[in-house]
Amino acid sequence: MELLKFNQERCDLCRLCINKCPFQALSMEAKGIAVNEKCRMCGVCIKVCPQDAIRFEQKAGSANKKDWNDILIYAEQENGDIHPVVYELIGEARKLAGKVGYDVKVVIVGAEGTRENAAKLLPYGVKKVYVYEHPGFEGFKADCYTDAVADCIAAIQPSIVLIGATALGRSLAPRLSTRFHTGLTADCTKLDIKSNTDLVQIRPAFGGNIMAQIMITDARPQFATVRYRVMEPADKVADIKGSVELCDVTDDLARSRIKVVEVIPIHRTKSISEEEILVVAGRGVKTEKELDLIQQLANSLGGQLCYTRPMVEEGHGDTSRQIGLSGRTVKPKLIITCGVSGAIQFTAGMNGSECIVAIDRNPEALIFNIANYCIIDDFNNIIPGLIQKLQAWKEVR
User: Fold this and answer.
1) CATH code at 50?
2) Residue 315: exposed, middle, or buried by beta-carbon count in 10 A (0-12, 13-18, 19+)?
């Protein structure tokens, strides 16, 4: 394995790495320790070396594309269940796989209950789910989780690895891409694939002014993280053909240098990414009275009030209720924008909404280019009457 390097000056030939390797990939040769084809880059040897004499070489390389096949998805678990972004990744992966004849596979890492969660994914058309279950995987620990997923990648050699752009995914993905000396495109909003299996990774760039198409043409695997709520979730299949495979997990593979001292649950409110109705206040909202008016509309609709980035920067709300590239991606059934011009940084985070109603005085506002219903007027003239109509409709019901 060319990527694993030994510092011969530091190595004291203690053989600890050889003894601890779970795949018998290391051996003592005349010129020192050698690595054979069994190495899965799990990182156990690096962990146990007392002299810090082993490392992964930080050097990009190329790969034979024919040796790397299929699409692998990392299945994140949240509060003991599958994170919803996983179903979106499966749905998108199935579309890509159909174009080049690939299978869709999943790897899931965790403690007790992980294999049960793995079985939940089979009805969605995945070919195989690789399960790494061990008590040491209780709670996300970046180092040992990286080792486990890297073990799976090295074993099955997927052409593409998709990970949700969650807090956990944004920690895991760069570690894996560095481990395999290949590229990573973060926060993709669209994906496509060429006939030669190069993944076309599309995401906003240069402050959202352009949509960049990024490809990893030489190295494999191709890593990408995808934002939650930008893809359509997978539908269930009528004929389940997939299977669950339990992977061997040694104590060394699950051992982490991170120690969880205490877990304090955070009271979780409903995220704007999960809301079906949103009302957005933009830069055209100038006073607290106007903001209160928009809040009343959100309350009347049973939705949440959200903001554009300029409004958050001015102190209205926080980033948890900010829509756009630097905030949250949303996909509600109904979104009403008030005084929002529609810069691409904002629209990239909400253009997948089912119904977009835009209210703005400027007839040239960019938001009208994507809105289903356009109201060219001051929202102060529109919202009071709309609230009255909603209240009257509720009384009739």
Assistant:
1) 3.30.70.20
2) exposed
